[in-house]
Structure formats: C-alpha cells, structure tokens
C-alpha cells in the first residue's frame, strides 16, 4: 500500500512514521523549499509522550527538550492556586521547541520520502493528489496535514472562511544563567493569561494570551 501525507509539520511527520510502521509506503509532500524554524515552545504532555514513544520518538524528545516536573497556576498577585506534581503522579511531560521536535521526527521519518518544494493543489477521495508541477500522485491513503488553509480540506469540502476564535497571543523567549528545573507556570487574570513554558535546560518561552472575543476582530 502507498500513502501520501500533505504537510511536513508535526502531524504530517507523525503520520508518515506511523504509516511506515504499519507497512504503508508513505510520501510526504511539503510546499516549503526547506524546513525552517517555525512556531515556538510546546509542552508535550504525558499522553502525547506515550504516543511519541510508540513512534520511537521518546528518547529524541527527552534529549532535545527538558523534563517538566510540576505545573503551577497562580492568580494576578502571584499567589499559588494549584500545584500539579507531574513527577509524583508519574506523568512524563516535556517542554520542547517546535523546531526541535520536528528535527527529532525527521531523524526517525522514512529516509527519502520527503518531497520539499511541492505544493498540493487538489486531492480526491479516491487517493489522487495533484501537485503544482502537474504531477499526479496516486495512493491508497491520503492524509491532509497542511494547516488551517488546507488544500486537502478545500478539495474535499470546498472553501470555508476562517473563523476568529477570540484570542490573541504574544510570544517571547528568554534564557537563565543557571540550570535549576523550573515549573510550567500559568497566571490567570481578567481576560488575560500568562504562560511560562520550559523548553530547554536554561530556556523558557513566555506566552501572553488575551481574550478579544468581544471585539470580533478578523484573523
């Protein structure tokens, strides 16, 4: 059997690895001419670590990320509301940069299966994928993992306008001089939330979220 995965992000690469393990020969189509750093820090929770372990990715994630041993939720005054001890609960959780997770996946993904600089322009229910070079790729399975403006989704279900979810986010990264383990920290405020995510031993990502749903701004 053959499979085509459209998109070489986290979901697409995971799908390609899983297909290969299931005995399906995958081809990954990616419109970018090269995979560059994109996105920011991620928290890979315990259930996601279990899924990554089944794909042979757990050790790569552990080597590239940092273990998150607990999480804290605080109010606007910095007072602790809730502490979740991931380590005591046996929840193996990691903070990692998205690009590092993608690199860990590329090391495990089937060699020679990635076609960069190739854009999907149409897909059909019977497994045909048309690319921008007018090449027709035929497979038994087609996986659409090409983002919020998915060509696969548009081909199968038609155009659908994006709907603003009512939230805005500002992200930044910082580094520390010491290697002390730091928790995943969330601060709750009025229509605002602050998240501090450990990504590497000395690095953290700060995310400020604002609820702008009343404004109904366009994306």
What is the topology?
Blueprint (H helix, E strand, L loop, with lengths): L1 E5 L3 H12 L3 E5 L11 E4 L1 H9 L3 H7 L1 E3 L2 E4 L5 E5 L1 H4 L3 E5 H11 L5 E2 L4 E4 L4 E4 L4 E3 L2 E4 L6 H7 L9 E9 L8 E6 L2 E7 L4 E9 L8
Parallel strand pairs: 1-2, 1-12, 2-8, 5-14
Antiparallel strand pairs: 3-7, 4-7, 5-6, 9-10, 10-11, 13-16, 14-15, 15-16
Helix pairs in contact: 1-5
Overview of this structure, please?
With 219 residues, the chain is α/β, with parallel strands linked by helices. The chain has a domain at 2-63 and 99-157: FAD/NAD(P)-binding domain (3-Layer(bba) Sandwich). 23% of the residues lie in helices and 36% in strands. The protein has 6 helices and 16 strands. The protein has helices spanning 10-21, 46-54, 58-64, 86-89, 98-108, 151-157, and strands spanning 2-6, 25-29, 41-44, 66-68, 71-74, 80-84, 93-97, 114-115, 120-123, 128-131, 136-138, 141-144, 167-175, 184-189, 192-198, 203-211. Strands 6-5-14-15-16-13 form a 6-stranded mixed sheet, with no helix packed on it. Strands 8-2-1-12 form a 4-stranded parallel sheet, sandwiched between helices. The longest helix is centred in the first third of the chain and has 12 residues, at 10-21. It is globular, with a radius of gyration of 20 Å. The two termini are 40 Å apart. The mean pLDDT is 87.
């Amino acid at each position: 059997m053959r499979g085509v995965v459209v998109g070489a992000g986290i979901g697409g690469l995971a799908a390609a690895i899983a297909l290969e393990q299931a005995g399906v020969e995958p081809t990954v189509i990616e419109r970018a001419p090269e995979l560059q750093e994109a996105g920011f820090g991620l928290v890979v929770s315990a259930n996601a670590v279990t899924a990554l372990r089944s794909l042979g990715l757990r050790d790569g994630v552990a080597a590239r990320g940092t273990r998150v041993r607990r999480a804290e939720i605080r109010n606007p005054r910095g007072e602790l509301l809730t502490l979740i001890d991931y380590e005591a609960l046996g929840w193996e959780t990691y903070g990692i940069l998205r690009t590092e997770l993608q690199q860990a996946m590329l090391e495990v993904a089937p060699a020679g299966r990635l076609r960069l600089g190739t854009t999907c322009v149409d897909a059909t229910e019977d497994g045909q994928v048309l690319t921008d070079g007018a090449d027709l790729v035929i497979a038994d399975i087609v996986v659409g993992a090409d983002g919020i403006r998915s060509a696969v989704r548009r081909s199968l279900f038609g155009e659908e306008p994006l709907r603003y979810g009512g939230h805005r986010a500002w992200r930044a990264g910082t580094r520390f001089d010491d290697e002390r383990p730091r928790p995943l920290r969330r601060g709750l405020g009025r229509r605002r939330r602050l998240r501090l995510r450990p990504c590497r031993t000395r690095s953290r990502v700060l995310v400020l979220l604002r609820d702008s749903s009343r404004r109904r701004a366009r994306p």
